[in-house]
Amino acid sequence: MKMRSIGSFIASLRKANGMTQQEVADRLLVSNKTVSKWERNESYPDITLIPVIAEMFDVTSDEIINGGRISKDNLNTANKNSKTEKQTKRLFDTTRTKFKNMSAIALALVLLGLISLFTIAYSTHRPIIGFGVFLVFALSSVILQVIHINLSHLTLNNNDLLQEFNEELPVLRKQLNTYSFYVFFGNIVAVIFALPFIIVRDAYNLNSVISMNSYFLLVPFLLLISFFIWCGLLSIFQHKIVKNKLENQCLSVYNKIKSINTL
């Protein structure tokens, strides 16, 4: 707060309204000495009193804090900026929530495909058909995620207003990429758990199905493969981040050298 501006502004408002310090004090339930200290710039009003003072003198709280009248143009600009910031935050939240829900749907699709594979394979003894149905669900999941991630990034990149929020935008992009990473990894794991229905069977009997006991014996091995793939993807992802940081640092050094040579 600007103590000098606030005190002087309150004093001018009081005099303009023909009020004494005691009358102001009575309205605000404080002592006249307190009001006197405000006007002498020895202290300033409690933040909870700002709206009350503003209402009493028919001004805005922003004007009290500003220590003077705010022109309509500046007030409209401030309101517009505040409204824009709220709208942008709402857009970020909506994009994040919508993308999170779509990612959940994509994961649900591949899970439904895996359940369909189990159901068809063990109920009809046609693992090939079951695997085909699974692939349809898995591909639908991947296509849905790819389309949605591209549309989301396209929306963020083509909106000039969002580009002004340099801190929030990279965080949102990272969250969207993280959701997509989980979806793609979920599809990879689903394929790993579906492959035994095609690989482990009688080559001369298309309708043969791996027994449940044999499949459950493979589960630890399948989980181990999934774990190694998870570690591999994370290492690649981390390497990409490190690589990008190094490239940015090299570019920064290059620009500095270029600027020195220009001088």
TrEMBL record:
GO terms for molecular function: DNA binding. Coiled coil: none annotated. The chain crosses the membrane at residues 104-122, 128-147, 179-200, 215-237. SUPFAM superfamilies: lambda repressor-like DNA-binding domains (SSF47413). Residues 10-64 form the HTH cro/C1-type domain. Keywords: DNA-binding, Membrane, Transmembrane, Transmembrane helix. PROSITE patterns: HTH_CROC1 (PS50943). Pfam families: HTH_3 (PF01381). This is Transcriptional regulator with XRE-family HTH domain. It comes from Natranaerovirga pectinivora.
